[in-house]
Structures are given as C-alpha cells and as structure tokens.
Structure prediction request, 123 residues.
Amino acid sequence: MTINALTASNKVIVPVQCEYLSMRGLVQLQNTLKMIQENLNPGVEIEGILPTMLDSRTVHAKEAVEILEENFGELVFKSRIRKAIKFAEAPVRGAQCSSTIRTANAASYYRELAKEVLTNGSS
Prediction:
C-alpha cells in the first residue's frame, strides 16, 4: 500500500518521531522513494519532514531534531508536533483528534503545520 500511495502522489510529508530508530526508518523510506522515482513515478518528491512526538524536555529529542536539520536542511518543517496526552486519549474515546482537541494546545501544532504548508508549498 505504501508503494501504491507513493506512486499516486506528487508530494509526501514524512512524519518522523524524534527518536533514533525512526530516523533510520527515514533512510529506508528514501530508498523506497528513489526506487519509485526511477520505476513508477518520477515526479514524486518529499514536500517536507515533520518532527513528531517531540518532548523538548529531553536532550535525545533535541539532538534528533538537530540531526534531521543537519541532514535534510530546508526539508525539515519549522512546525513541530509535540507529545500530548490528548492525542493518545482521542482514539480511546473513539473520537477524532480534530473534534477532541479543537481548543487544546495540541491542535495548534497541526494548525501551524497547515499554515506552513499553505504558505511555503510549491503547489
């Protein structure tokens, strides 16, 4: 399904949890994307890399963001999706995050991302 989705896409936003193993997965995704560009969809490209589940209190998370920025530069969104218990609670209640956390700080993380994509997006 991932290959089908990437083949049908023009742009991809890549969420990356701010942990070491997640960044290793990003390398695997890049390899998959390169194969798709060579064989199936030469126009697909990464729109941006989105640091997620960021706990800015930890050195590990801060280092993870620094590594992303060093390796991917401008592809890393300025927006950050921070860890929030509201995200974990929504599925337990059977509710969508958007309806559960509309006024919460957690929802503002996604609003900031939407503004960034709409402001800086190329298409």
The two ends are 24 Å apart (CA to CA). The chain has a mean pLDDT of 86.
